[in-house]
Amino acid sequence: YLVGVGRADCTGPVAQVPLMGYANPDQVGGGLLSRLYSRAFIVAEPEGSKRVVFVSADIGMVSQRVRLEVLKQLRSKYGELYRQDNVILSGTHTHSGPGGYFQYTLFWITSKGLVQPALNSIVNGIVKSIDIAHENMKKGRLFINRGTVENSQINRSPFSYLANPESERKRYPSNTDKEMLLLKMVDEDGHELGLISWFAVHPVSMNNSNHLVNSDNVGYASYLFEQEKNKGMLPGEGSFVAAFASSNLGDVSPNTRGPFCANTGESCDNPQSTCPVGGAAMCMAEGPGKDMFESTRIIGQNIYLKAKELYEKASQEVTGPLSSAHQWVNMSDVSVELDATHTVKTCKPALGHSFAAGTIDGVGAFNFTQGSVEGDPFWDQIRDQILGEPSNETKACHKPKPILFNTGEMTWPHPWHPDIVDVQIAAIGSLAILAVPGEFTTMSGRRLREAVKSEFDSHGTPGMNVVIAGLCNVYTHYITTYEEYQLQRYEAASTIYGPHTLSAYIQLYRGLAKAIALNATQELSPGPEPPLFNVTSLTLLPSLSVESAPANKTFGDVLEEVRQEYREGEVAEVTFVGANPRNSAENATEHNFLTVERYSNISSSWRVVLNDASWDTRFYWSKGSRGRSNVTVEWHIAVGTEPGVYRLRYFGHYKKRVALFRVITVPFEGSSSAFQIT
């Protein structure tokens, strides 16, 4: 094959924008722990015109808006080379990235609308990573390997899982998928290019009290792998690209200690995930570490170490033709043939009461509980008053789900949920990547993979490696099995197209697999095109206004100085007169907020040893009154840091009024005093 890899920044605004994932409106960005990247991989047939693009981006999920805008840019740059059928865009599902990049109204509620800078940085970052991969295509080889990752996940809805038939559960050793599938890429001389790992775990080691933008456990795994392979480079630099992509993680949590009542410390591993005192709002799962930062590193390191082992031992070469199949489908109206006599249908989208309960990884508001199969008269009344009562048809279709948000019948100012959804498979030789538009649970994923594999088998393409890539192309929440749906825990309440959603997807993906196996992808009907709503900027974000520094101070001045001396394991910190970091995101695509620099006696100059993409640095922004704000830079000094003289620097932009109607953005910087590490 010809192979190309690329990586580009897609972080966007790190302040004031709500973070996407927990749907908690109080969880807004207030700084940066690690940068977010888009990682792109292109595989092409050396002679033919066929190629496949796989992108994994450090974002909550790929929205339809992001996908349509990326495809539009690719079309204007490359013509018909990169299209909706051969480009897969997947989100890692970090819950600590900026939101606001959606066109459907439901997602505006917790994201303060459509945030253009967040949308732009994601779209531009994805396109740039594809550009870099496109420019660096070279002859290469691919190898596949698989193995088991231990101690890194639990099923967060085990009672739902137990609703699946016993005969089916008996075939699997665990209630989560522990297998990692890894694709290794080298050039023809054996030089390493990169890897993609697929593993099912929620990147929610960082909980909903976090305000620092970061890529969570799987992002930390990427960081460790890339730092190891790009020796001597700063984080985010270097040619080796390691993507840790999402899979069927719907019911899979990294918080391996399981759920406990925050107030009493007793277990709340019960069907309702509720506590005797304080109810469901008190039931939270804990990770393996002493705090969320340590848990993120522990889980990330586990995933990284398994990937490293699989990468080093990968010997099964991937060969064979490339192929891709794609359809747009109206998921609110799919007829599914269960057997010769039974046909069922999917529903208009709707969310159940337990959607509002959240999960043990991030509980909801107002003490909704998981597993509600009855509505609540109080909330139903409020829903009817504000949003309108669901039609009888929708109510009946979703049974036993009591509907809280009847999104499929809500169209103001735009539809609240998508109807038109992408289904897509890309085949690279013996590897079939199923790009799914949401979060399949463990058992849903197993059923889908098995159905697709048997479809390939029965049409003359046996022995395919089938992997699910999660959170692709458009976000449609969760996909549970029919049996799990009956229990209406969070994942089931969030299965928006009703109880037969999984059966519909299985039918659709079988059709794609059959078309690939029979080399008949051009005969697939493209289906109804998704809409692109005319929303440019509709946001409740505070506008960026003129800023000021305290009396006798200027931007970048030190307010609280570092100590003169630190040891490894300690935290060096300095506070500056700061400015809103959004200014920087809107003025520079790849702005670096901070550096750690070491003084070199040999060259008598300062050398950058860490930047803001490092997991050892933290950048905090806090807003004061009257246009003032502070920035604190922390460096958590790692064990093994070279002794010497260091300093911390901060780079920002402030807004300054130069005329009655003219405000300009001015760059500035600040530096701590020098300090010693002993």
From TrEMBL:
EC number, UniProt record: 3.5.1.23
GO MF: metal ion binding; N-acylsphingosine amidohydrolase activity
Record family assignment: Belongs to the neutral ceramidase family.
Catalytic activity: an N-acylsphing-4-enine + H2O = sphing-4-enine + a fatty acid
Location of the active site: 253
Boundaries of every Neutral/alkaline non-lysosomal ceramidase C-terminal domain copy: 510-677
Domain Neutral/alkaline non-lysosomal ceramidase N-terminal: 1-507
The protein's name in its UniProt record: Neutral ceramidase
InterPro entries the record matches: Ceramidase_alk, NCDase_C_sf, NEUT/ALK_ceramidase_C, NEUT/ALK_ceramidase_N
Highest taxon above the source species: Eukaryota
Gene: Asah2
GO biological process, one term: ceramide catabolic process
Hydrolase recorded as keyword: yes
Required cofactor(s): Zn(2+)
Top EC group: hydrolase
UniProt keyword terms in alphabetical order: Hydrolase, Lipid metabolism, Metal-binding, Sphingolipid metabolism, Zinc
Cofactor: how bound: Binds 1 zinc ion per subunit.
Cellular component GO terms, alphabetical: cytoplasm; extracellular region; plasma membrane
Protein residues bound to Zn(2+): 93, 202, 439, 478
